[in-house]
Structure formats: structure tokens, C-alpha cells
Design a protein that fits this description.
mainly beta; SH3 type barrels; OB fold (Dihydrolipoamide Acetyltransferase, E2P); six-stranded antiparallel sheet; five-stranded antiparallel sheet; 16 strands; about 0% helix; about 55% strand; flat
């Protein structure tokens, strides 16, 4: 059990039967009445962020979490297969658990697997990836870096990214996996 006095950002606790990660917290001691703790909690399963207030000293069950580096091997419609970098053990996950996390991840790329109470919970891709453009409309004369404007481009994983007009098929791009935005040409 963990008390509100022991809260730390990133700690995972169980509230009302659901697992939440503490995004931020603030101990408040008003002049009148008892102290309390204002928190922002992120639901581990859904990703929704909620504000909750607790009395000072209230206790919660702490959830054991660990982050493991895994190698993404391949996907089929029924499973996503990962390999542990240390033990070379393969792990098969349901595509529903992975969700949209692999949109910009190609095979044999390292990802992070969040394990909550011994069960795989969430797949976190690297923050930035380098991918090759496989399909985009050809640029027209006058397309420059300062010319402005964007066009859609399909990258090697099949995802579509908005890129500047000067990008062409075969270019390697750096992409932010959190937002899906083009960062630069590499």
C-alpha cells in the first residue's frame, strides 16, 4: 500500500478498480479544514487523463510496473510478435492491445513494452523514426523549403504523413511517432 504522502510522478496506483499513472500531484493545506492532495491521473488502459482529489494520508494499492526493451519482429491480423532483447524469448500480443503504436514502426526496430502486474499493458514506439518515402506526388517547379505547402506521402510502413512539397520518392524522413509529424529529411 502507498499513502498520498508517498506519491511520485509516474507511479501507478489502483483507484476504484482501475490502474492509473500519476501525471502530477499537489499537496494542499488550507487554513481551515484537513489537508488534501490534488492529482492528475492517466488511465493506463484508455489513456484518458482525469483530475481527482484525495484526503491526505489516504492509502492505495501500488501497481508493480516494469518497462522492457523488445524487438518488433512482425505482425499478422491475429497477433503482433515481439522478442525480448535479453532472453531472446518471443512474445505474442493481440493487435487490440497494441492499437496504433506500430503505425510508424518497421520490422526489427526496438520498442518499449510496459508490463503492469506481470501482464503486457502498452507498447511505446521510439519517439523518432527514420522511414523511406514509397509514394508521393511529384513536386512541381518552384517547390522549395521556404515555398510553404504540404502534400501527403506514404512511408514504408504504409502510414501517410504530410510533408513539404520538395520531398520525393526514395527520400528518408525523420518522423515524430507521438504526433505523426514530419520533422526533417535525413
Amino acid at each position: 500500500m502507498v499513502s498520498t504522502n508517498d506519491f511520485k510522478n509516474g507511479m501507478v496506483i489502483e483507484v476504484d478498480g482501475k490502474n492509473f499513472s500519476i501525471v502530477e500531484f499537489l499537496h494542499v493545506k488550507p487554513g481551515k479544514g484537513g489537508a488534501f492532495v490534488r492529482t492528475k491521473l492517466k488511465n493506463i488502459e484508455t489513456g484518458a487523463v482525469v483530475d481527482k482529489t484525495f484526503r491526505a494520508g489516504e492509502k492505495f494499492r501500488r501497481i508493480r510496473t516494469e518497462s522492457r526493451k523488445m524487438l518488433y519482429l512482425y505482425s499478422t491480423p491475429d497477433e503482433v510478435v515481439l522478442m525480448d532483447n535479453d532472453s531472446y524469448e518471443q512474445l505474442s500480443l493481440a493487435p487490440a492491445l497494441v492499437g496504433d503504436a506500430l503505425r510508424f514502426v518497421r520490422e526489427n526496430l526496438e520498442v518499449e513494452l510496459l508490463v503492469v502486474d506481470g501482464e503486457p499493458s502498452q507498447l511505446v514506439p521510439p519517439t523518432f523514426v527514420e522511414l523511406e518515402v514509397t509514394e508521393t506526388e511529384p513536386g512541381v517547379r518552384g517547390d522549395t523549403a521556404s515555398g510553404g505547402g504540404y502534400k501527403p506521402a506514404t512511408v514504408e510502413t504504409g502510414a501517410v504523413v504530410q510533408v513539404p512539397l520538395f520531398v520525393k520518392v526514395g527520400d528518408r524522413l525523420k518522423i515524430d511517432t507521438r504526433s505523426g509529424d514530419y520533422v526533417e529529411r535525413v
